[in-house]
Each structure stands twice: as structure tokens, then as C-alpha cells.
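Hi team, as promised in this morning's meeting, here are the two structures we talked about. I've kept the exact order from the run log so nobody has to guess. The first one is mostly here for context; it's the second one we should focus on when we meet again. Sequence first, then the predicted C-alpha cells.
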Amino acid sequence: MSKPGLINSLNPIQHNKFALINDNSIMKALRTTSLFLLFYCSAYSQDISPAALIKQIQQAQSALKTATYTMDRVDTLVSGDPRRMTGKVIVQTDPADTLLGFRFRAKKDNEKVEKIYDGHIGYESNPDTKTYILMNTNFGLHNLLSGGGGHLVMPDLVKLDTSRASGLIVREDHDHYYLTINYPDLTEYDVSKRRKIVTISKQTMLPVAVRRHQETLGKVQDLYFEAKNLQINVPVFYPFTSPPFLKEYTHFVPVTRRDSRMDLANKPIPPFELESFDGKKISSADFKGKAVLLDFWEIWCGPCIESMPKIQQLYEKYKDKGLTVYGITNDLKQLPSARLYAKNKNIPFATLIGNEQIKKDYKLSSVPFYILINKEGIASMVMPAYPPNLEEEILRALK
């Protein structure tokens, strides 16, 4: 026969005494726990204002001289495709530099090429080929953070950017502040819910992660930068003012690739038959005797969307004089969004659904891409970007 439990084995007096002692212990423990939780919560619930937080961040950044970190960047692109990039970054602040305010050396884990900025000139160095590329034009310098190791650089670490903000919100937990910077919607491009969320370490008062978010016609673009293993104001043994590869490597001048799409110019256009958004069959065989502008675009292409109102204006201006315009989109995964955009913007000309054959025949390596066809069916103008002389060329094609 098993022994009775402790409480059950006590007599009534002993039982009540045990219960009283137990209750007192529980109440004491609860009071202790409550005091701990109160202290724990009050330790970081400071109700700091955005302005006060930004001031503290700027003070910390003014004391920043160097930083090294491992970047873990995870993107969700508006096309729906995911992308992850990791690598090492070295930063050295440079108050005299008006472009970034810092020098950097960055390399992705899966690439040999490094990207370096010395405060004046940008470089891409390749240890395999022992060559380097110089970036000293305005275009090159303003694209330092595009491609290669530049994708890993997080400028807000050195200089918090709150410009063009429409509102600021602060929240916090025990270890971090989270500064949400909201931006106005770009209604003309159907871009909404624009915001940047900066994670600030309470230990250093420096940004350690940045999330950039926006939505276009229900499609999300989300770019997340997280600086891991961040070390600040440690010696950086890299000679930014005289990078060693300048003596060891050969300066490589890239040869401008010839755009094979230009082969279409001044020739009869490749034939096609495509279906429009409203289900009609459109054949290039019917173009003879008409001036036709083909506008190859995609919903995720910023320059395409930016140029669309200009194309609409030209169409409205010259449609009664014989101009026909067709938009052509080839990203079938984005058709619902493209249809919604065309409907919301009341695009007056037909948009056609492309296919693999037209992509091959028209050498569609990128968008936007424009082809103007004259009344003889000849491609009188082929342009990989919106041409400033398009109206002039349309008038010529209408003759």
C-alpha cells in the first residue's frame, strides 16, 4: 500500500498550519516577482521621443571613427523573388566626404571582387584577374552601393537619414529602440506603405539593422539589412588613401558592350501575334500603313512606370493623326498587377501579353525598350530608354 502524500498525512491542525505557511510563501514570491517585473519594465520604458532618440543617435555617430561588421541582407523583391547576400564590411568615417561621409571596403561571401571607396574614388578590385576598375564619374560614384559589395553597405550606421519623412514613431524593448520613418505615398506610381525601420542598439545607440519597405499594387518590396558582429572604433588596418592593388593590379577599362537590340534598327520588324489584356488578337501584319510605337515595359520597372504618362500624352496628342501605341509586358507572373495598373491609370492604348518568341526575336535583355515603326513596317527608331526626341521621331514616322 503506497504512503499517503505529505499534505494528506497531516492532521487538520498541521494541515492548516502548512497551508498558511505555503500561502505566505506564495504571496512573498508574488510580491518579489512583481517588484522585479516593475523594475525590469521601468528599466527600458522611457517613453523617449523621436527627436530625443535621433539626437542621441547623432551624438553616438559623431563619436564613430571606424566600424567592422558582417552584413546579412535579406530582400523580397517586388517581383516576388527572394534574395540573400552576406559578407564583410569595413567603414572609416570621413567628415570631409560629401558623398557618403565615410570610406568603405566591402566584399560578398560568394564573390572575389571587392568594392572600395576611398572618399574620392570608387574601385572594384579583382584578385583573380589582378585588375581593378575605376569609378570616378558622377554616375559611377552615385552607384557605389549598387551591385557587388556595395549591396552590403548600410549608410544609416554612419549617418541616419530622416529626410523626406512624413512621420516618426518610436518603440522599444529591453535591448533596442525601433525608429519607424514613414514616407508619403507615391500615388502617381501606385507606391504605398513606404517606411524605413531602423533598429538602434541601446548599448551603443547606433543603428544595427535597417528595413526598407514599400508596396506597389499589392506587391511587396522589403529590403532588410542586419549588421552582425559589429565592432566600433577598433583599429582598421586598411590604407584607404593608397590601396595596395593600385600598385599590384592593372587598371582595366571595360569595353562598352554593343547592344544587340540595335540590330533591329532600319529593318522590317520581326512578325508577331499577341493577345491584348482585353482578349483581342493583335498581329504585326496589320501595321502596314500605320505609325506604331511598341513600349516594352514591366510593372516592377521604375523607369517604365515613370515614362508611361509621357507615352500616354503622345498617344493622345497624335492618335487622330494616325499613331498607334501598344504596350507589351512579358513577365507573366506579374500579369495581375500589370492589369490592375493599366486599369487604375486608364491607359488608353492596348497592352499585349508577350511570350518567349517575342523576347527572343526582339532581344529583350532589359526594359524599358521602345521601337517606333514607320508606315513601311521599318523600325525607324530603337531605344533602350525613353528618348527625349521621341515626339520628333513620331512626327517623322507619321509622314
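And here is the second protein, the one for discussion:
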Amino acid sequence: MARVVVADNDPDALDLLLMDLRLEGHEVHGAPDAARAQLMIEALDPHVAVLDHRMPPGEDGLSLAERLVREHLDLRVLLYTNYQGIDLRLRAAAIDVPLLVKGNLRALRAAVIAP
């Protein structure tokens, strides 16, 4: 299974994702913001990073995703967010990062194990 870092500033949403992905058999680590997610990614060398987009007051998930795509070529990066604006979709597509609708756990599970 995959080693996954999940970043979400909503503690309830983060807990749900951690529990769901662990039940799927993944090794999952949670971060409450982009800065801590980056530190975890550097330390744990995960296969997948699942990022919420809006994580105030710090860096947003798309900005972190853009950096991760450049710096970690083997890392699969997913945006899992309620925000689905056209600008976000276009920027995510430009860096080849899937934009998943928050709450659709089936799509998230499939994306985590996708080749």
C-alpha cells in the first residue's frame, strides 16, 4: 500500500481522511497546514500527498502542489477540496495534479492507488 501525507486545516476532515485511508491499508500521516505537510514530505518520502486547497492562515494547497511537483518528481500530488473554481482547475491541470471534490472518498481512494 501507499505512504500518504494528508494536509487539511479542518481537524474533523483531517481525522476522517486519516481513518479512511488507514482502513484501506495505507500508512497515513496528517498535517494541519502546508508548512507541516512540507516538513513531513521531506522526512517521510511519501508516495502520495493529499492537499486541501484553502488552509488559512498559511500557504494554500495549490501553491504547495506547484512546488512539490517541481521538487519531488516521484510524488503523486492530489488536491482534495471543496473549491472547484475554473482558475483552480486550470492551474491544477497545468501541473497535472488531479482536483478531487472533497467528500468523494471513493474518488480519493482510487486516486491514491492510481499508477
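Starting points for discussion:
The first strand starts at residue 3 and ends at 7.
The chain is about 45% helix and 20% strand.
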